[in-house]
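FAQ
Q: What does a multi-component entry look like?
A: The components come first, one per line:
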Amino acid sequence: MATTSSRKRVPKKTVKKAAKKAAGQDKVERRRLWLMYPSRLIKEPVVWKLGVKFELIPNVRQASVTDELGIVCLELSGRREKLKAAVAWLEKQGIRVDPVEINVMES
Amino acid sequence: MSKGNGMMRALKCRECGRQYPLEALHVCDFDFGPLEVVYDYERIQGVMTRDLIVSRPQTMWRYRELLPVVDDPTVGFEVGFTPLIKADRLAERLGVRELWVKNDTVNYPSLSFKDRVVSVALSRSRELGFDTVACASTGNLANSVAANAAAAGLKAYVFIPADLEQGKVLNSLVYQPQVIGIQGHYDQVNRLCAEIAGKYGWAFVNVNMRPYYAEGSKSMGFEIVEQLGWRVPQHTVIPMASGSLLTKIHKSYRELSDLGLVEASGWRIHGAQAGGCSPISQAQKAGLDFFKPVKPETIAKSLAIGTPADGFYALRVMKDTGGAADDVTDDEIREGIKLLAECEGIFAETAGGVTVGVAKKLIASGKISAEDSAVLCVTGHGLKTLDAVQGCVGKAREIKPSLREFESALTGDGQLTR
Ligand SMILES: Cc1ncc(COP(=O)(O)O)c(C=O)c1O
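Then the predicted structure of the entire assembly, as tokens:
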């Protein structure tokens, strides 16, 4: 199942080290996210910055950009801490970040 | 297809059409499009007749060939077949020839339409070998998962935002699932829950079980058709949060009509939202086929989803059927709740007020013609949102225990003054 495959992707030699650290800090994980950005950010190379700033590997799966709204569906791979920092950075830029499931929290 | 899948054929991506096995999967590996259950309609056509359906108990499971389970359901046998009420008094007030109310305020066991989706999700979870089910919810979904899991003896985890009102938490706690409050903003809570759902081997009803879960909503449409005497209504007004219920009611009409169980006729599907969270209805009114996400601010908490997962598909259904959408203010929602209670004796939660309020607008604007017949989907009980009507339904009048006091409280026309 795609959603559990992240556990299998941990390189063997890092397993011991990771176990000593706080749970999962050093693991390579994959996160699937929808990014929605407002018109003022459409010209910014957001996806490229994610790769450079946070050492993440972005993989675009869907995108729709109009002059009003940019919607990009990404798979991001990288270390857990970097992923967390990247999400925080995206939000600070004014980008909305949802899991691909969108509304996990329902009424 | 193998007998082991019952009437189901596969899961299929709604975007690219790729097929997947009937497991606990919900997005396409290629484009992350949502997966949907596809059925073997030829086989279903061979066995499913009106006589067979009518011979079964009056629950949602009488349409089981079109629901995503292989064997007999093991959770929620009693769910569904709620009353369809001919609402003559409300019809007169709203100015339309014929009006029906599909009354899911009395759905069993947790008093909202969510029992339909949850009983399907949990029955299917059992078939797939899960013993632990989970959901993240602020209200109706949590109540339904907690209650149905308790009755079925399944282990349940319910995630809620840490700042949820006590009353709402009690409604889930009483069934004794594991309830976990998460601190943080809605977006963070949402992302954490997605992570948990991905990491643990649980059946998360609206995440990895979503393709099955969502199909449960079709039962509301099947029942409407049967209860109308095997007729698809001209107009159906449906409240929208994610937009899933709306798309599934349309699918239910299409399936019955494709299978020849009901005469093919035109039907219009209309969507209802609260003004304080109306991404789908705003897009529909502007003629757009995509929506802009919003930050919800409304008393209709059960419909407060700012980024609706099925919004795009709901817009398409309304467009294809010639339906419309509209939205109402918080005051109009309260008015709608009162109107339904006053005219039909049905106490609905805020989502019901939204549906009634929007129906009123659609009739007034002629989008539902005064000569036509319409069904309103009322999806949750008023006892769940008592706060919403607090202070706007008047007060009891107190008198001393004397007949004279009572009579002086009566006005000239024999009514008590308020
Ligand atoms: C009472 C009630 N009505 C309607 C809805 C709308 O459901 P959907 O997300 O399928 O649009 C919900 C969703 O939570 C609900 O709780």
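Q: Is there any commentary attached?
A: Sometimes. For this entry: Confidence is low (pLDDT under 50) at residues 1-24 of chain A.
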